[in-house]
Amino acid sequence: MWRRLDLLVIPGLVLALWAQWRLLSAYRRWSQQRLQRDLTGALAARDMLDGAGLTTVPVEPTSGYLTDHYDPQKRVLWLSSDVFEGDSLAAVAIAAHEAGHAVQHQRAYWPLRARMALVPAAQFGSWAALPLFAVGLAMRIPPLMRVGALLFVVLLLFQLITLPLEFDASRRARRLLVESGIVNVGELDGVEHMLRAAAWTYVAAFTMSFVQLVRLLTLSRTRR
């Protein structure tokens, strides 16, 4: 039984590894192509935010590799140093994607509001779900197993809501880049390639979590 359950994880793991490889491969490729306009990721993000009326949202550098994100609590757009200072298509694509999240916040996009509401529960579940389930499984305490599984469902819901959020941010990024004249038609292909590669990492994360949930629920049934 254990071996059969472990096999459930393999497809999700393969997809996750492939998505991560595709993202890194796309980033390496499009980091080599410079933007025709003399703009860094930070300047491109600033231009797009200003154009959307978000003049009070700062663009700040942060440490790490591909750690770019928009913080809706502090209303700050954080860019990794390579993206903040880079003038490549990859840097501009990533910066535009994060600017897209800021625009979502401005326009009260409902998946963003739902995701923000789930943040506390998702943060708690990220460290408590599996330990609670494991203790319940080992000690044969079904209520504890159910609590662990329920917390894992919250995590899965959090990742599910993230999918339309990320795809919409990429759609907004493409539009903002074109409307602002930051990229031309010839450069748009590289931007879209980069954004699609990034989107697959979220699909893979959701798939992996879904497979893991199926595994946990199957284990809970076998231990009743």
Number of domains: 1
Low-confidence stretches: none
Please estimate the helix content: over 70%
Coarse shape: elongated
What's the average pLDDT?
89
Characterize the structure shown.
With 224 residues, the chain is mainly alpha-helical. The chain has one domain. The chain contains seven helices and three strands. It has helices at residues 2-30, 41-51, 81-85, 89-106, 110-139, 142-179, 185-222; strands spanning 59-62, 69-71, 76-80. Strands 1-3-2 form a three-stranded mixed β-sheet. Strand 2 and strand 3 (76-80) form a beta hairpin. The longest helix has 38 residues, at 142-179. The protein is elongated and about 65 Å long. The mean pLDDT is 89.
Summed up:
By secondary structure, this protein is mainly α.
Q: Secondary structure elements and their pairing?
A:
Layout (H helix, E strand, L loop, with lengths): L1 H29 L10 H11 L7 E4 L6 E3 L4 E5 H5 L3 H18 L3 H30 L2 H38 L5 H38 L2
Parallel strand pairs: 1-3
Antiparallel strand pairs: 2-3
Give structural attributes:
single chain, 224 residues, mainly alpha, 3-stranded mixed beta sheet, 7 helices, 3 strands, elongated
